[in-house]
Amino acid sequence: MKTTIKTTLAVILLLATSQLFAQREKEIQNSEVEGIYLNADNFKSGKLTPLTDKQHAGDKIKLKQFFISPQIISIEQGKKTVFYKDSIFSIHLFNGENYRFINRDPYLIADTSSLYIYTRKTVKATSKQVGPRSTFIAVPVTYYYFSFGNHKTIYSLTLANLRKYVLIDSTIHMAVCNKFTTDEMLQKINKNTGHFELNETILSKLNK
């Protein structure tokens, strides 16, 4: 009986894990990385630091994501160079996307029109009662962060953080707080422009 219970639990755990990995955002491949931006100024000016020209045998880039390593490793003509994810600004992909590492996870730099807004799609496991037993299901979630100024510090995208760190100007404060009354509303994107409505609201007051 105990063996049967253990086997059943193992199967449930395996299915839950498989479901989690199946629904996670596609992992960035090492071959997709064109280079890195060492700091925010480099990012703003488009000064990209290439990691390797990939013209020699053994040239490679390792993001080392599987074990959530703090390092990015570049190998060029046998020479190994180590960059730390929390010390660079972002990585740049050949498709034009940029990702900044937050807690060692890559977050898409989704909007830079005012605040820099970062997003990461992933899944979390939650238990659900099905008849007499509970089972695990994978629920899609998206996490949002933002930065401003010198962009060294990153904050969760919440009304509380905006009020505390960003909304100093009374006109902008009123405009944002009148339009966005929940944290979820801050996540809205204008489908016509591709920008977050939060950034458009801030810019509409700055440009007056």
Concise account of the structure shown:
The chain is an alpha+beta fold and 208 residues long. The protein has helices at 2-23, 40-45, 159-165, 170-179, 197-206, and strands at 33-37, 49-50, 60-62, 71-76, 79-84, 90-93, 98-102, 105-111, 116-130, 133-147, 155-156.
Give the amount of beta strand, in percent.
Answer: 25-35%
How far is the N terminus from the C terminus? 73 Å
Q: What's the alpha carbon Rg, rounded to whole Å?
A: 21 Å
Question: Strand count, sense and closure of the main sheet?
Answer: 8 strands, antiparallel
Order of helices and strands: HEHEEEEEEEEEEHHH
Low-confidence stretches: 4-24
Number of discrete helical segments: 5
Overall average pLDDT: 87
β-strand number: 11
Q: Looking at the structure, what is the overall shape? A: flat
Helical/strand content category:
alpha+beta
- Integer count of domains: 1
Give the neighbour order of strands across the main sheet: 2-1-6-7-8-9-10-11
Q: Can you give the helix content as a percent range?
A: 25-40%
